[in-house]
Amino acid sequence: MDIETLLHFQYIAKYKNITKAAKHFYINQSTLSRQLIALEQELGVQLFIRDNKRLELTEAGVVFSRGCDLFIKHMEVIIRDTKSAGKGESGVLRVVTPGNFGNILHQSLDSFKKNFPDTQLLIELYNFSEITSAILYDIYDVGFTYDFATSDNDEIEQIPVAEDDFSIIVSSKIAKEPSEEHIAEIVKSLPLILPTYVEPPFIKLVMYELRTLGGMKNIDTIYLNTSDSVMLQISLGLGYGIVPTSLTHTKMSDDMLTFFPISGFSTKSKIMMLYKKSNPSKLVTSFVDIVKNISKFDTGSFPY
């Protein structure tokens, strides 16, 4: 029994006539008749009631036809997926990111799914300082992180796709409008809460400015294991933080936090896309090309 035999059976059942089914497949009627007899012998049941030139399905034939239809569709999917895999157009693409970087992620994923509908996309969150290692050890295929959190490695390709700056944030219950007076009071009354992993290069300068603004020698600083823990503490009014602006906007609603822009010096950081150079997958190279086309980072424009 093979798929061709099952298809022939389906069309005999559809036309209720062997001659019409034979014409549909451009084969001899006698060939189709012998094939049907062989199928019934293999199954050990009668599939059709033969009444002159008209054929009607038996109860066993109805059951077989129903299951046969599902089986054929399932095999068609398997064959399609197998062919797609052979062309490198299916499988799983694993993407890792510290959060939603805005439109670039949405647009890239939407475009990728349209081009590769048979590919499963897995998107996971990770601390941005650990993403380079996760790509290096093949835990993920493509990653996004900040330039200061990457490490020099000849095996990893690093492509800038966007920029993000940093802001000082506090719970909107503590301060609704950003101002220097508010920041000074916040620095004096609340601890600075930061994640334990890699700090951006300008963080010490920001902390120096905060100490000056608050008239303090030292800032009470608390370090937590994850950025999500930092955000939770800050949203509950237990401290303030120095965070990437765009990334934080996508994680927390604006009515929960007040953002204080940092002025006087640049806090811009590049958002980098990472992938392993030795990964030859068509899925990876196609996704990378999609992100590069959407970001247009080299022209100075980026759709946030």
Keywords summarizing the entry:
304 residues, Arc Repressor Mutant, subunit A, D-Maltodextrin-Binding Protein, domain 2, 3 domains, 5-stranded mixed beta sheet, 11 helices, 44% helix, 22% strand, transcription regulation
Explain this structure to me?
The chain has 304 residues and is of the alpha/beta class. The chain folds into 3 domains: 3-86, Arc Repressor Mutant, subunit A (Orthogonal Bundle); 91-163 and 269-299, D-Maltodextrin-Binding Protein, domain 2 (3-Layer(aba) Sandwich), CATH 3.40.190; 166-261, Periplasmic binding protein-like II (D-Maltodextrin-Binding Protein, domain 2), CATH 3.40.190.10. It is built from 11 helices and 12 strands. The chain has helices spanning 3-15, 18-25, 29-43, 59-86, 103-115, 131-136, 180-189, 203-214, 227-235, 245-251, 282-295, and strands at 48-51, 54-57, 91-97, 119-125, 142-146, 156-164, 166-171, 192-195, 221-224, 241-244, 257-261, 269-276. The strands form 4 sheets. Strands 4-3-5-12-6 form a 5-stranded mixed beta sheet. Strands 10-7-11 form a 3-stranded antiparallel beta sheet. Helix 8 links the parallel strand 8 (192-195) and strand 9. Helix 7 packs across helix 8. The chain is elongated, with a radius of gyration of 31 Å.
